[in-house]
Design a protein that fits this description.
Layout (H helix, E strand, L loop, with lengths): L7 H7 L9 H14 L3 E6 L4 E3 L12 H6 L4 E9 L5 E8 L7 E3 L20 E8 L1 H6 L4 E2 L1 H11 L7 E5 L9 H5 L14 E2 L1 H10 L4 E4 L14 H8 L3 E4 L13 E6 L7 E9 L13 H5 L4 H9 L25 E7 L8 H7 L6 E7 L5 H16 L2
Parallel strand pairs: 6-8, 7-9, 8-10, 10-11
Antiparallel strand pairs: 1-15, 2-13, 3-4, 5-11, 5-13, 6-12, 12-13, 14-15
Amino acid sequence: MSGRMMTRSSLSHHHPHHHNIIPPTLWLVLLMILSICNCLPIRLEFDDEDMLDLTYPFNNQTVYYPTMEQLGFTFQLGTVFRGLNKQQHYYSAYWFQAAEHGGTHVDAPSHNQINGTSVDRLPLGQLIGPVIVLDISQKAKRNVDYLITVEDLQQWEEKHGKMPKGGILLICSGWGQKWPNRNALFGTKNFPDDTSFHFPGLAPPAAKWLIKHRSLKAVGTDGPSVDSGPNQRQLPVHQLFSAAHVLIIEFVANVEKLPTVGATVIGLPMKIEGGSAAPLRLIGVNWRQRPTGGVTVDAEEEEEGGEGEEGRKNIASGVGSRRKHPSLNTSASSRPRPSSNVTATVVTRPTAAPMPRKISQKLKIPNNRAVINLRWNSGLPLFIIFPFLSLRLFRYAQL
């Protein structure tokens, strides 16, 4: 010091880390970049092989509820014109008719509630969510009228973790293997006599438990109904779910091919104004390579056997196997949760140019035809607080 008072400029000049200090202007540039990135869309792509069709085709074999069958309101497809027109151009057009409650379809709350929401007024996001598969196929083999209990649901959670909020529960009873045999599906030789039906479903206490303790968007089944065969006259589970605005999906195809957790289902019902139900196109997304709840697994880890011996055995067992990703922690806090801050849209496009292999594997983004665009709508974007941060940085830089 030699008795002299050091000025601010001389202090900064002699500061050992003077050259490592980031200039305030660079801080501002970085903040601006972060503000822009905070609002940029994220694009996830899926191959056709990563999308599973959970919908039965509509044709002359489509199974309808017996009331519809008795009245003759089954699926019919007629020809308006098919052939060469006057200009010698090929042209085809058809008409069809169908009842609401048949094939893969969704029941709206208005199906069992006087003032319930009709199918055309359902929120678009109510049929999009993480899938939860409850496999009761072995129990249903032993008891065709098996009722899913609260204990079944709790045991599922002990093994796989708490059901995610906003999830869609799909019941795998093994009944999908009976499609399109009406008598086998309804468990009777006297179709359409609904007093003779035998098939599994949910017990009313289990439905009440789901409504009270788990915020599910919908509950579906590969069978005719979420109510068991003997309960078709009273439909207690239908009444409970409709009152709670939990949607009901019936005759879901290929449920046995879905993983227990990790996939996402997307459903779009036909927009029938005032309808109590509608045909539903339902698909499972990422059913082969499940999302990891925000945890990214390096490609090198997977190539070196990151899935483990058990995972390799499951992969070898075929598409019907139910595999769980090793990095998918089943604790309630780690699994994906639906968020009102994230909006998603699905579009189609031609196959994209190949992405670098390492990046594609690391981000789980295969080159494909389907694209999901996610846009993060932050409640407090950085550009709003940008002036305040800038002021603080200027004051800090002057110290």
